[in-house]
Amino acid sequence: MTVLAVTAAVTMVGSALAALAQDDIKRVLAYSTIGQLGYMAGALAVGDRGAAVFHLLSHAAFKALLFLAAGAVIHAAGTNSLTATSRMSGLAKRVPDAYWTMTVALLALAALPPFAGFFSKEAVLVAAEHTALGDRTVAPAGAGWTVLVAGLLTALLTAAYALRLWLRAFRGRGAEAPDHGRQPIAMTSVLWVLAVPPSASA
For 41, what's the count of Cα atoms within 13 Å in the CB-facing half-sphere? Predict the structure, then answer.
């Protein structure tokens, strides 16, 4: 359990730091996925399979939305680069469906209440806290402290790279974003369908 806790901690913190350093919007999300897998492994390390599965389902909902919204942004901007989108103005107005739904998904990823990601991450951290304080004896207290500290640090880093992605994608300054035509209804409608589970708690 201790080895699994250390592995989960390294995975969480390392991937969050890597996400902060990425310029490609899809790479940010890919490293984010690795970090959320670290949370799930952390829940298993403190003996709470329920919290692991809860975060698995919560993460599946908001990450599916994030990747599809990112695809809509890339389609509209004509690039994967956050540096390039940060030099474009008006992208949020050009793709309002992607803007609003991606905002919801990023809030869930950053675990802000009352979005689903808050409750699933809280379940992992509460399980780690109970283990650290000796209320649960399934795993050593050291495993609990490792997961708890790494989970809290990763939560802060996750909020930082989620905010960075949002600002660089939708709050750029410079020339107007290119107009590649209206996005297909099949691309935008599914975003709203996927926005329901992450915001269901709201």
Answer: 21
